[in-house]
Amino acid sequence: MLDKIILNAPLYLLVFARIFATLMLLPLFSMRSTPRTAKIALAAYIAFFIAGSANLSSYKSFLAQDGFASLEFVLLLAGEVLIGFVLGFYIQIIFSSLSSAGQFIAFQMGLGAASAYDSLSQIENPLMGQFFNLSGMLVFLQTKWFQKIFLGGLITSFDTLNALLIVNTKDHLISFMLKSLSHMFMDALVIALPVMGTLFLITVCTGLLTKAAPQMNLLSEGFPVMILVAFTLILFMIPSLIDFFVRAFSTAFSEIEQLFHVLGGV
């Protein structure tokens, strides 16, 4: 294994750079509790198997004849890191939509202040945001999308896209990422809108009843009711939410695959 890596060290390093950059931004692997040595070892192990089948023929003209990297190798390495960041950041956007949906629901039901550090998103996140984030991660693991990323997505990315093509297609890449951010908020609203709409109607009804009978002080009683109704709605929505998560992951990976084909000119 080490002999093969040493003989093709420049090409192997290019493959390793893309895989390691992807791992650094992937959910679960980007957690601070995950050891850095484990990430490096996993990236090196995956790169060893992908390097033998990856199409890196377009890079060979930029490498010296004796196998050592030429001056352009640093730019190629930076390009590979950028491709890995794009893939990892796009997957982070998917989970951010789930976390945002939980935050919208938490603020509407009165649990916005009940926040704690979320190890997955690495920010202060309300409890409902953490619930949706963890639920999405369980669905992500159960549907084997991690295996599809490593065994299918990364190999396909090497066959269709390299660092040389990003320079000519950077405008399309930027527009794609901006569109993905807008889709993130749209997905978050689709998930949270049924609960938010119901809680909004409860708030309006409570306000009208309080205006009609101020002595009842229904506003103070409205918060427990909204929390109970919100949890009941989420309980009945879990099957539909899981189906939505699966469709969202499938659609997202289809779009990133189309992006690689467009950037690669395939």
Report on the structure:
The protein is mainly alpha-helical and 266 residues long. It contains nine helices and two strands; from the N terminus they run ααααββααααα. Strand 1 and strand 2 form a beta hairpin. Helix 2 packs parallel to helix 4, helix 4 packs antiparallel against helix 9 and helix 5 packs parallel to helix 9. The protein starts with a helix and ends with a helix. 30% of the residues are buried.
Low-pLDDT residue intervals, each spanning 5 or more residues: none
Number of helices: 9
- By oligomeric state, this entry counts as single chain
Query: Sheet with the most strands?
Result: 2 strands, antiparallel
**Order of strands in the sheet with the most strands?**
1-2
Shape: elongated
| Spatial gap, N to C terminus | 33 Å
* Total number of strands: 2
Overall mean pLDDT stands at: 77
Radius of gyration: 23 Å
- Level of helix content? over 70%
Q: Please trace the helix and strand order, writing H or E for each element.
A: HHHHEEHHHHH
Find the structural class using helix and strand composition: mainly alpha
Strand content: under 5%
